[in-house]
């Protein structure tokens, strides 16, 4: 039996093509996906990577061999695939490796209505079948193979997003968008069409080799070009999308990054205005400003572990209208509880264009604390180092501990979280405090123990 543990992760499939996986294996994954979901029809899309069309078509052949009718939507963003899954009420598969380098590719899978497929919700079963069949060959398919047809849903996707945010009264804005040669270059022009925007496009050419910079806006070095262009053109804001365009980052009119926590708080306030008293989800390393803003606007904040499967579970369980993560993933009840950076971007445009001040002033109300950002340390003994950090703070007056996800240590005017990576020998540290000096002191204190 083949071992696919290197490419089947907690929430998706990801690996180097063709070294770790290829089109024959993609066909097997398609057959396994159709079998595990029991689907009579599925929808499949792909990003702009050179290997994506072939892998996507192979997956479609595999699903069709089990009798499933396949709708291919072709080039799309990940949230456009989620839209298709929700709108058509079909299980879906998106071929992308998000922000990973060009030689990588992967599959994000969902059940009908964009419900996530992870280790506990079908991915382990898909892997088991794929391992069995890659070793012994695909068994005979369905008596009648499914059909494979094409459908373009880009305009339906754009129209649906625009129906969720009122942009009718916004003032003219100059907006720089860095698509990073990813799928934002495909979706942004259609979604923003007809709005009073002076759009300054950067790297809209679809190119899965990422010739200009990595399509990972979480890394500050990949925002440098956008920041410079915003300052150079006197733009009102800048937006940066990752490779599969499901995450969106913003910079203000000065070229300064806007914290995803501030965006979470801003969108939460807007959603609570439409849904008084609603639940808002946030993961435990978003800023304290998020639950504060939610409470101030009459909502209920629910704190979760980091990761889209936890957020989506809590969205469904609580009926939450919105959820946000520090990594710029934004989840909406109106979007089948799935994440869409594009919808968050429309909220940002509506908020900015609905008043006269600059973005820096608008978000200041939602960005109340100093923070370190995520700092990674390579350690051999994650549990031992975490225990040592806890011991260093044990017994201090007014300090509390919780272990919802890693170790969170908190006091009146600061907190930090130390989490182990699931896939690498890393500890991830996030620190937040009322001032930068306290952040620096805590950061150095914790890292001295972690790296000591």
From TrEMBL:
Signal sequence bounds: none
InterPro entries listed in its UniProt record: A-D-PHexomutase_a/b/a-I, A-D-PHexomutase_a/b/a-I/II/III, A-D-PHexomutase_a/b/a-II, A-D-PHexomutase_a/b/a-III, A-D-PHexomutase_C, A-D-PHexomutase_C_sf, Alpha-D-phosphohexomutase_SF
The protein's name: Phosphomannomutase
Transmembrane region(s): none
Cofactor(s) annotated in UniProt: Mg(2+)
Annotated source species: Actinacidiphila guanduensis
Domain of life: Bacteria
Record keywords, A-Z: Isomerase, Magnesium, Metal-binding, Phosphoprotein
Domain Alpha-D-phosphohexomutase C-terminal: 374-447
Coiled-coil zones: none
Gene3D superfamilies with a match to the protein in the record: Alpha-D-Glucose-1,6-Bisphosphate, subunit A, domain 3, Alpha-D-phosphohexomutase, C-terminal domain
Molecular function terms, GO-annotated: intramolecular phosphotransferase activity; metal ion binding
Pfam families named among the record's database cross-references: PGM_PMM_I, PGM_PMM_II, PGM_PMM_III, PGM_PMM_IV
Alpha-D-phosphohexomutase alpha/beta/alpha domain: residues covered: 6-131, 157-255, 265-369
Family: Belongs to the phosphohexose mutase family.
GO BP terms: carbohydrate metabolic process
């Amino acid at each position: 039996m083949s071992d696919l543990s290197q490419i089947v992760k907690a929430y998706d499939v990801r690996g180097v093509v063709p070294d770790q996986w290829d089109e024959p294996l993609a066909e097997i994954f398609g057959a396994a996906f159709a079998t595990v979901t029991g689907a009579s029809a599925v929808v499949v899309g792909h990003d702009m990577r050179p290997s994506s069309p072939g892998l996507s078509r192979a997956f479609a052949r595999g699903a069709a061999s089990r009798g499933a009718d396949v709708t291919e939507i072709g080039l799309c963003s990940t949230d456009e695939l989620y839209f298709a899954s929700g709108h058509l009420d079909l299980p879906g598969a998106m071929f992308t490796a998000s922000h990973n380098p060009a030689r990588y590719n992967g599959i994000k899978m969902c059940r009908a209505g964009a419900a996530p497929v992870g280790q506990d919700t079908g991915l382990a079963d898909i892997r088991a079948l794929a391992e069995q069949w890659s070793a012994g060959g695909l068994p005979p398919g369905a008596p009648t193979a499914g059909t494979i047809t094409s459908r373009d849903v880009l305009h339906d996707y754009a129209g649906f997003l625009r129906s969720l945010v009122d942009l009718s009264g916004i003032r003219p804005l100059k907006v720089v968008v860095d698509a990073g040669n990813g799928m934002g270059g495909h979706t942004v022009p259609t979604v923003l069409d007809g709005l009073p925007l002076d759009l300054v496009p950067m790297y809209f050419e679809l190119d899965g080799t990422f010739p200009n910079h990595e399509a990972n806006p979480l890394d500050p070095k990949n925002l440098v070009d956008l920041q410079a262009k915003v300052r150079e053109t006197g733009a009102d804001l800048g937006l940066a999308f990752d490779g599969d365009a499901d995450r969106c980052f913003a910079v203000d009119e000065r070229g300064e990054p806007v914290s995803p926590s501030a965006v979470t708080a801003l969108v939460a306030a807007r959603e609570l205005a439409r849904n008084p008293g609603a639940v808002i989800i946030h993961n435990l390393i978003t800023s304290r400003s998020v639950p504060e803003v939610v409470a101030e606007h009459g909502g209920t904040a629910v704190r979760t572990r980091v990761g889209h499967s936890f957020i989506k579970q809590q969205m469904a369980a609580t009926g939450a209208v919105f959820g946000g993560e520090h990594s710029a993933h934004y989840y909406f009840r109106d979007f089948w509880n799935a994440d869409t950076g594009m919808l968050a971007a429309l909220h940002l445009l509506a908020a900015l264009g609905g008043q006269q001040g600059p973005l820096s002033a608008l978000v200041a109300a939602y960005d109340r604390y100093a923070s370190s950002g995520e700092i990674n340390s390579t350690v051999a003994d994650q549990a031992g180092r975490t225990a040592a950090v806890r011991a260093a703070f044990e017994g201090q007056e007014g300090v509390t501990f919780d272990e919802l996800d890693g170790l969170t240590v908190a006091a009146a005017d600061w907190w930090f979280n130390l989490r182990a990576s699931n896939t690498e020998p890393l500890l991830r540290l996030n620190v937040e405090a009322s001032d930068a000096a306290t952040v620096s002191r805590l950061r150095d204190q914790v890292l001295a123990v972690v790296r000591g």
